[in-house]
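Quick note —
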Amino acid sequence: MKRRHLLALTFALAASTALPAMAQNADQPYAGTHIAVLMEGHPTTDGIQALLPEFTKETGIEVELEVIPESDITAKMLLEFSSGTGRYDVVQNNIIYIPGFVQAGYIDPVDDLAVKLPKYLDRADFVPGYLNTNIVDNKLYGLPVYGESTFLMYRKDLFEQYGITAPKTFDEVVSAAKTIKEKSNGEIVGITMRGAQGIQNVYVWAGWLWGYGGEFLTSDGKSALGTPEAAASLDAFANVLRDYGPVGVANFGWEENRVLFQQGKAGMTMDATVNGAFNEDPSVSSVVGKVGYVPVPKQSGDLKGGSSSLAVHSLYIASASKQKEAAWLFASWATAKEQQIKSFGIAPNSGVTSQAALNSDEFNKRYGAFKEAMLGSINQGNPQYLPTVTAANEIINNAGIAVSKALAGTASAKDALAEASAANDAALAR
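Predicted structure written out below.
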């Protein structure tokens, strides 16, 4: 009898201790799952990385987050995708590459996952223009992790001191750059922009291309870089950097460019709207409250598209992933408004894609100085600012070589772009 009571008590205790574990497993069905994520270096990524322990605590999912520069991420992704290694479950990239990724079968639509695991997703909270760029053939392929446009940033104090008005044309940009460098006796360069070959210099020069009435592709899908408008835009871009820009500008990427301006060593810069967050951050900037923000100038009255970008970087689930449900939970968590709002206290991040984050008191407190200009640039941003075709990566690489040659003076803008245009036509014909 005692033995029967003892066994019953033992089973009862075992059952009582098992219940919490069973309940925990029900709350964390993917606990112990390991996923690998590839993202680019950016304030958004800094915020996600800092908050990762919260995600693991909530879900039990372990995340290996690899961060590399934007200029390297596409080549790395294409290598992994084409080799079929399944190395990454979630990847981040610019939406311009979506058509190629979809056509090659490298990424999966996420509509079914959104229905199955809706915990972190609030589709209506995303800025519509950002979310819609991720839809191909009525299927959702990614979630926007950050978005931005471009604008011209200028030193209000220097412009007032030297009697310069905010530029509306690129001729006025050149004139202002000349005035600042000459009147400061060269202590302050007139303008700084990205000059590093590839996506870096192309992203900024594209504003000049469109502003001069040029474009990357014609309406029938051929390269448009061999036009007089394209050559004029590259001539102006290269000349203003050579004459009034910083030493070593040919090696400037996003970080080098923004840091020089933050340090008060340049009168103007043209770059991503996220740079405004760094300009107005007193912990990293010496120009807080001294910067004016205006749309990217226009040189021509006959534009084929706007000169401000509409850039959206999203998280995608790799088709080769073996952990798609866990990957989706990470992607939807990382882009949720709760994480975006928390990110304000971690790194300068004005590129949020959540409407709740954009309209929060914290956003207005930190970024009110340029919010209106930023939203204006986004609202008139050009969705074709960079080509969105399957051959986008090749087109950008070829254009980047042309920009570098013109900047170095090893070829005229006309000749460098003619060579790039021929290479791009070959890529488009494949």
